[in-house]
Design a protein that fits this description.
The chain has 219 residues and is mostly helical. It has 6 helices and no strands.
């Protein structure tokens, strides 16, 4: 649009002056030649000088034709240049959106990672889950099935199963109506110890399991 807007008046000017401008120059040259002849006492100019002045009009014609062809070329190239520029902007916007999606996925996975790890740390430090945010833990486990592959999801669900079993045994041992001293209580205590050690051991394994999903350059 800007090229056409500029081209039309310029080409119109060229068309309007193309037939008259050379004759105008020739007329001026004739007047100039006559003036010089008068100053030189009526003596004519040399033939080479006259030819040189006439040739100048041919150069003007060539220049006008060149300008006309140049604007035609610009009009043809401009849409291609605009399309390339628009394509580059669209690609940059795609890259920005793609990075935002990666960042959002990373943040969601990080939330699950930190919450599950905090539960494991609570088991390690306090041998209980009283200070852990269990509601958030179970919610993160539910969300994980949409954000990780099947092996990782299965691993997270296994941790949840162990945590639930650990809680149930604690209720049997220390909750209201806890088991009295005896063989059953001893077996439950041994099972609780085994589950607790398994959960504690996951602290070192956990990072390795999540490493492929937490590196933002691999998302």
């Amino acid at each position: 649009m800007p090229v056409s807007f500029l081209r039309l008046p310029v080409l119109e000017l060229i068309e309007n002056t193309h037939g008259r401008f050379p004759s105008l120059l020739i007329h001026c040259d004739r007047y100039h030649i006559t003036s010089i002849q008068r100053r030189k006492g009526g003596k004519g100019l040399k033939g080479q000088e006259i030819v040189k002045r006439v040739n100048n009009t041919g150069m003007v014609n060539s220049l006008l034709n060149f300008i006309k062809e140049l604007f035609c070329l610009i009009e043809e190239i401009a849409p291609i240049a605009i399309a390339i520029f628009a394509g580059r902007i669209a690609y940059q916007q795609y890259q920005v959106q793609r990075y935002k999606v990666k960042l959002d996925l990373f943040e969601r996975r990080m939330k699950i990672y930190e919450n599950i790890r905090s539960v494991l740390i609570n088991v390690f430090h306090y041998a209980s889950l009283e200070k852990a945010d269990m509601n958030n833990f179970h919610m993160c486990v539910r969300h994980s099935k949409f954000l990780f592959d099947k092996p990782t999801r299965d691993y997270i669900f296994e941790i949840e199963d162990k945590v639930l079993e650990f809680q149930r045994i604690q209720m049997f041992l220390f909750g209201p109506g806890s088991l009295p001293e005896g063989e059953t209580r001893t077996l439950k205590a041994v099972l609780q110890e085994e589950i607790m050690m398994w959960l504690i051991n996951q602290i070192t394994v956990f990072d390795e399991k999540f490493s492929n999903f937490m590196a933002i350059n691999k998302i």
